[in-house]
């Protein structure tokens, strides 16, 4: 997949490889860096997470990555009505688990474009199989304005964020 945005450098999107996880990568958040180096390839290869990487067209080293997975959420924590599992209190959703951009690449809209690729996937998959929300747990209060700018809303007393499927479909309509 290729992206030809104006302003920011042209980047390619691709699924993580074992080789990519062995390359130097540091976003400055210890837990995210550790996940990418030690767990991302394993999680992707066993199918528990899908990892999308971004690289500059002129390089093959990852400039950033997004990790997402199917999850469930407690229905009472979000507004609306949901199709609950087996009469329980949970519903299915897609979760953005990790997002990291290599420090030298930060500030070039790579994170925004990675989240955009996850939102596009969510719009396609959520529409087909009925996932009502893309959810995430922000790593810190400092990153919340970034997610708010992309349409995410706070829930669970502000400790988590969500993007409704309808918001994703407005940006990435499905037929």
Automatic annotation (TrEMBL):
Keywords: Acyltransferase, Repressor, Toxin-antitoxin system, Transferase. It comes from the Bacteria. One of its GO terms (molecular function) is acyltransferase activity, transferring groups other than amino-acyl groups. Residues 40-152 form the N-acetyltransferase domain. InterPro entries: Acyl_CoA_acyltransferase, GNAT_dom. Pfam families: Acetyltransf_1. It catalyses: glycyl-tRNA(Gly) + acetyl-CoA = N-acetylglycyl-tRNA(Gly) + CoA + H(+). Signal peptide: none annotated. The keyword Acyltransferase applies. This is N-acetyltransferase domain-containing protein.
